[in-house]
């Protein structure tokens, strides 16, 4: 890694039919199914969100993946972090897209993996936004050393690829639910990686559990004790957790009741308010990786139970970027995560849509260039 700010974007390898989704949701189901049928839930609610340049794409089509990489280059993005689903005993979902990227060598664009190590449930959202009993679809299992080795061998093929993103020679590997990970997992993978020539092992990154965070402060040190190299704290949470004190939380509780009456989603907050809490003093730590959140709207999946960032705009996105880059420019490893490149079902993406076009891509690029040009000048002195 050089001295420039590096943005790594979360990438969802869905958007194509596969057997399990056919069984669970009906033949041909993809994320686009929910995206396309979304409806506005209140005045000026931007739904449905309609893709522009790439359309309702199918990721099995290689030229689409090339076009995504080209758009990401236009945005100044360093690489994609492909979500990776390993449930134990070799069981994976949606691995075919990444396997094709790996086998074909295309697109020639940097990447890394993030293990989404959680069980899948069919969420039961009631029409009023309340949440019923979920149905387990597939369980995340941790089956011991032989399965950890099998998992490692699968990922090793990616780690050895010249495109794989590394920090000081160590492959970048994010864990979505680190609190559930058996304690011996990391030490075993580190041992095997060093035996395979990665002298600095693997750069394990933990995602802090936001449900256990009070007043927006994460217990970063507990992850360091578990041998993680760095931590991301995605401060995308309910408005109740944004509130910095008891008085404001009480007011939000009243507001929550009013939203039930007015039929506005209970977890709807203006983006301009939310971005104040996306970055804290914790992001100044060398081992804390900030997270860019351009937008979020879960309503295609959960209706009135959705978390929604309302009144998003490219201008506010630039304000959010500036706050993050002002912190990161003073660090040694200037890594930033972008959540997300293409989570359309969560309204969390920067791919072009018919309302904003390439605005988010262009603003990310221009803001990155501004900061990286300044960093180049400092380095050349």
TrEMBL record:
Fetch the CDD domains from UniProt.
Glyco_tran_WbsX
Superkingdom, taxonomy of origin:
Bacteria
Q: Per UniProt, what is one Pfam family of this protein?
A: Glyco_tran_WbsX
Which InterPro entries does the record cross-reference, listed alphabetically? WbsX
Q: Which residues form the signal peptide?
A: none
Q: What is this protein called?
A: Lipopolysaccharide biosynthesis protein
Species of provenance: Phocaeicola dorei CL03T12C01
């Amino acid at each position: 890694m050089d001295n420039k700010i590096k943005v790594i974007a979360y990438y969802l390898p869905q958007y194509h039919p596969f057997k399990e989704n056919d069984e669970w949701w009906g033949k041909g189901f993809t994320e686009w199914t929910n995206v396309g049928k979304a409806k506005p839930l209140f005045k000026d609610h931007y739904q449905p969100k309609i893709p522009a340049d790439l359309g309702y794409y199918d990721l099995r089509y290689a030229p689409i993946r090339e076009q995504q990489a080209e758009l990401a280059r236009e945005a100044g993005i360093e690489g994609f972090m492909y979500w990776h689903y390993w449930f134990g005993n070799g069981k994976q979902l949606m691995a075919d897209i990444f396997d094709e990227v790996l086998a074909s060598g295309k697109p020639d664009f940097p990447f890394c993996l993030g293990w989404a190590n959680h069980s899948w449930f069919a969420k039961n959202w009631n029409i009023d936004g309340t949440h019923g009993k979920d149905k387990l679809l597939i369980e995340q299992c941790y089956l011991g050393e032989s399965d950890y080795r099998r998992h490692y061998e699968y990922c090793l093929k990616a780690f050895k690829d010249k495109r794989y993103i590394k920090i000081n020679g160590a492959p970048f590997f994010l864990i979505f639910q680190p609190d559930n990970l058996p304690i011996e997992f990391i030490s075993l993978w580190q041992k095997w990686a060093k035996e395979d020539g990665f002298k600095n092992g693997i750069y394990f990154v933990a995602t802090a559990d936001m449900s256990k965070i009070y007043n927006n402060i994460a217990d970063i040190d507990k992850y360091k004790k578990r041998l993680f190299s760095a931590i991301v704290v995605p401060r995308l949470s309910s408005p109740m957790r944004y509130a910095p004190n008891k008085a404001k939380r009480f007011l939000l509780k009243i507001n929550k009741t009013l939203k039930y009456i007015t039929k506005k989603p209970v977890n709807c907050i203006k983006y301009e308010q939310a971005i104040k809490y996306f970055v804290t003093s914790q992001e100044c730590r060398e081992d804390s990786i900030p997270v860019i959140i351009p937008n979020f709207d879960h309503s295609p999946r959960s209706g009135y139970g959705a978390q929604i960032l309302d009144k998003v705009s490219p201008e506010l996105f630039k304000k959010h970027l500036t706050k993050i880059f002002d912190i990161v420019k003073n660090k040694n490893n200037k890594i930033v995560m972008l959540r997300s490149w293409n989570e359309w079902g969560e309204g969390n993406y920067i791919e072009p849509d018919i309302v904003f076009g390439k605005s988010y891509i262009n603003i990310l690029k221009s803001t990155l260039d501004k900061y990286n040009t300044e960093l180049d000048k400092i380095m050349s002195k």
